[in-house]
Write a structure and sequence with these properties.
The chain is an alpha+beta fold and 115 residues long. Helix content is 19%, strand content 37%. β4 and β5 (68-71) form a beta hairpin.
Length: 115
């Protein structure tokens, strides 16, 4: 699946807006997407470093219009924790030389509606 197919929409609620300050963003995602696919999609779309992904299935509610009773569809919600303080990573290469990797990650998702 493409990243655009995995991330359906941001979930903007009072609770999700409060968690933005801790680096947690909430998305409505494809029901068949795994945590690894969700993490890669968020990293590709927004240019951030994902630390953790929590997913849950949200059951549809029973709705009534007049005398007709129906049900809203079930959907999957993902709470993605991003790295709010990206740092350089250093490691020892061959020959004892110290190599640093400083990938340019953003510390927030600016495109998020709740931001």
């Amino acid at each position: 699946m493409r990243p655009e197919d995995i991330i359906v929409a941001p979930v903007v609620t009072e609770k999700s807006n409060d968690e933005i300050q801790f680096g947690k963003y909430t998305f409505k995602v494809n029901k068949k997407a795994t945590k690894v696919e969700i993490a890669k999609a968020v990293e590709n779309l927004f240019g951030v470093k994902v630390l953790n992904v929590n997913t849950m299935m949200v059951k549809g509610k029973e709705k009534r219009v007049g005398r007709s009773i129906g049900k809203t569809s079930d959907w999957k919600k993902a709470i993605v924790t991003i790295d709010t303080d990206p740092k350089e990573v250093s490691y020892m290469a061959k020959g004892g030389k110290v190599t640093k990797i400083s990938k340019k990650y953003k510390d927030s998702i600016d495109e998020f509606v709740g931001a």
